[in-house]
Structures are given as structure tokens and as C-alpha cells.
Design a protein that fits this description.
Aspartate Aminotransferase, domain 2; binds pyridoxal-5'-phosphate; Aspartate Aminotransferase, domain 1; alpha/beta; 7-stranded mixed sheet; globular; 3-stranded antiparallel sheet
Length: 401
């Protein structure tokens, strides 16, 4: 049986055949270079061939009658896509708008808010750099106080994380900006528990779920947060330049895109659905990415990739004589493993040099982050990875000078 074709994958219903579609057998659906070991799906995703083809079909459809497409087809297609994304993430399509990436969505929220002197904004020390810079910008400008709450790494249990954040709340706290899954350290934070504590105190919560869609079984509406943004171009497999923003209905009237365009005064959806002329293909191809994943099965993807991440983390840490950064319950499809001290100082330029060396000399891509006093390799696992990739990384780490 040819397990390399999607046509075959579509018919799968028994576990053993489904298993055969993951790992090396799934590589043929992607454009990744021959011989490349790709353990960094988390940074920029990797678009599959069927989704690339769908994007090309979408572009050709636009070019057949650009004016009619923009004026008549696009508004309908965007709303239909929002409904499909809503179904997938547990939300109504009417509460969802599209943006190019999570950074833009975070900017739209933070720059729509009116902060002022005397207000405290909480975040964590694991917050992504671009988000932290945006927070610094808006807080400095408003003379509000930004408080990055320290989260120990390796990450303690969920209760300790919640307690740490709750104990940082003051009578002046108005906003929490929190990752669903951290970039450095790749930890799934206990979002529902955190959101419940903050909602009880009337504090708004903005979730950076850049890594959420495609890794987590999301039920955004039930989380009790104010905003949730997720990238569709990472784990969901849509073309780059596709993210969504969900806003609680009672906050939508206050939302403005960072780029003000024609319909800014006409409400949440009109304001975001027309940001000016651009290529809307990445948004409109999200349903094709969901269709591609459906051929593997959402549960099967989650089981395969999470299990691989947990096994790989334990194996690599044991072989290197180090530790894994997260317990299993906080490990998504990415796992971070400490590198031995011999790899050098905990500085990002040391990490970047190591990334380049491994890329050039071993044809292998892996993220390495410097934080909490050491270097951490972050391994990402998607449908095309298997344990042989981890052995190749181990070999590279053991031989690299
Ligand atoms: C936690 C987190 N937030 C935000 C981003 C930014 O995503 P984008 O570059 O798509 O805006 C990333 C990117 O890796 C991330 O890991």
C-alpha cells in the first residue's frame, strides 16, 4: 500500500495504518529539502504541498477578475473562513478577524487600549520578545507600570505558576498579557486557571496564543479571557501571513487595527476585514490547511506529536545528562532540553552561532535559546518527524566542536 499519498491517508481508519502516515512517510507531503532534518516547525511552520497548491488556485481565482473578487467575493469568503476557524477554535466567526501574524494582533489590542499613569500591566518573564517590546512601548508612552512576573524554568507545577501571577496583582492591575504556549521553554501555561483568577477580579486578559492553534484542542470562548490571538501559519499549516484575533463581544467596539483604513468607524469586522489592498490568500487558504490536517485526524496529530515530544525530551536529556524544561502535562509538540555547559555561555549570540553550525555542518534545523543561565535546545515535532530525527540531533550535538 502506498502510505505516502493523501488519498491513502484519507481512507485511514485503523490505528496501524494511521501510524504509517506519520513520520518519514508524511515527508513527501512537504517541500522540505532532501536530507534536511527539520526539528523547528515551531518558528515558521512548513507549508504542505496540497496547501501550497490551494494557495496558488486562490491567487489565480483572484486574478481572473480582481475587482469583482475584492468587492464581492472577498467579504463573503473572509466571513466564511472566520466561521470555519471559529468552529475549530471554539468561538463564533463573528468574534474573529484576521491579521497577518500574532505580533500585529497583539499590537492592535495593546494600541487600542487607553492606559494611563497609575495602571499596572502584568506579564511574565517568558513573554515573547516582540510582545515584550510592544508592552514596553505602550506602557512607557502611557506612563503605566509593566510588571514581568518571574516564572521559574524548568517550569514548576501549574498551581505554582497561577499563585505567582495572582500574588503579583495589585489594586492598580488592569491587564494581564500571557502566552498560551511560551516560545522560550515551550511550556503550555495553565491558561484557564489563570484566566479564572483574573476574571474574578475584573482584570482583562490578552492571550498570545501564537503557538496554540494546531497544537491545542482550543475552546476559546470558554477560557474567560478578553482577547485571544493565534497564528495559523505555524502549527495549523496555513501559508505565512495568517493569524486570527478573537475579541470578547463587549470589547469589540473599542478595537482598532494598527493600520487605520476606510471602515474604521463601521465596527469591529468592517474595520479589520479591509486593511487596504493586499494578498488575502493566506487567510483564505486556512480551510485548506484544516482539510489537510483532517486527513491525518486532529486527535491523531495531537497524540503523535505530543508523545514524540515527551519521548524525545526524556531521551535527549538522558543522553546529554541534563534536564527537560517542562513536565508532560505542560509539553505541547515542542520540548526544551538543557544543553551541557560545554556548549558555552548562556548568551543568544552563542546560541545563534550553534544553530548556524548545526544547520551548515549537519543539515539540521533546531531552535536554541539562551535564558535562565543556560542554553536550551527547543525541538519541534510535526507529522513528518520521528525519533530518527532526534538521533540525528544527538549525533550533531555530540560531534559539534
Ligand atoms: C509566543 C510567541 N508569540 C508571538 C510570536 C510572533 O509570531 P509572528 O512572528 O507570527 O507574529 C511568536 C513567534 O514565534 C511566539 O513564539
Amino acid at each position: 500500500m502506498d502510505t505516502n499519498t493523501l488519498a491513502t491517508a484519507k481512507k485511514l481508519d485503523s490505528d496501524d495504518v494511521a501510524e504509517a502516515c506519520f513520520g518519514a512517510a508524511a515527508r513527501s507531503h512537504f517541500l522540505l529539502e532532501d536530507g534536511l532534518t527539520y526539528l523547528n516547525h515551531g518558528s515558521y511552520g512548513a507549508v504542505s504541498k496540497p496547501v501550497m497548491a490551494a494557495a496558488q488556485r486562490c491567487r489565480e481565482r483572484i486574478e481572473r477578475q480582481p475587482c469583482r473578487f475584492m468587492a464581492e467575493d472577498l467579504p463573503v469568503a473572509l466571513r466564511k473562513t472566520a466561521d470555519r476557524v471559529g468552529d475549530y477554535v471554539g468561538a463564533k466567526g463573528d468574534d474573529i478577524v484576521f491579521l497577518d501574524n500574532a505580533t500585529t494582533a497583539i499590537n492592535a489590542v495593546l494600541r487600542s487600549l487607553v492606559l494611563f499613569p497609575g495602571v499596572d500591566v502584568l506579564t511574565t518573564t517568558l513573554t515573547y520578545g516582540a510582545v515584550m517590546r510592544t508592552l514596553e512601548f505602550v506602557c512607557d508612552r502611557a506612563e503605566a507600570r509593566l510588571i514581568p512576573v518571574h516564572i521559574d524554568y524548568p517550569v514548576p507545577d501549574a498551581e505554582t505558576v497561577v499563585d505567582r501571577l495572582v500574588s503579583a496583582i495589585t489594586s492598580r492591575t488592569r491587564l494581564l498579557v500571557i502566552d498560551h504556549i511560551t516560545s522560550r521553554g515551550s511550556a503550555v501555561l495553565p491558561l484557564a486557571e489563570i484566566a479564572a483568577e483574573f476574571a474574578d477580579r475584573g482584570i482583562q486578559v490578552l492571550v498570545d496564543g501564537a503557538h496554540g492553534p494546531g497544537m491545542l484542542d482550543l475552546d476559546v470562548e470558554s477560557l474567560g479571557v478578553t482577547w485571544y490571538t493565534g497564528n495559523c501559519h505555524k502549527w495549523l499549516g496555513a501559508p505565512r501571513g495568517s493569524a486570527f484575533l478573537w475579541t470578547a463581544p463587549d470589547r469589540q467596539a473599542f478595537m482598532r487595527p494598527t493600520t487605520i483604513s476606510h471602515h474604521v468607524a463601521n465596527g469591529y469586522i468592517p474595520a479589520f476585514d479591509w486593511p487596504g489592498t493586499k494578498d488575502f490568500t493566506p487567510y483564505l487558504t486556512i480551510p485548506d490547511a484544516l482539510d489537510f490536517r483532517a486527513r491525518f485526524g486532529e486527535d491523531a496529530i495531537r497524540d503523535y506529536c505530543h508523545d514524540l515530544a515527551c519521548r524525545a525530551g526524556d531521551y535527549l536529556a538522558r543522553e546529554l545528562g541534563t534536564v527537560v524544561g517542562t513536565r508532560e502535562s505542560m509539553t505541547p509538540f515542542m520540548v526544551s532540553v538543557a544543553l551541557p555547559k560545554r556548549f558555552g555561555a548562556a548568551k543568544q549570540d552563542v546560541a545563534d552561532a550553534l544553530i548556524r553550525k548545526i544547520r551548515d555542518e549537519y543539515h539540521l534545523e533546531v531552535a536554541i535559546h539562551a535564558f535562565e543561565g543556560r542554553l536550551w535546545a527547543r525541538l519541534s515535532f510535526y507529522v513528518y518527524n520521528d525519533m530518527e530525527d532526534v538521533d540525528r540531533l544527538l549525533h550533531a550535538l555530540k560531534s559539534v566542536e
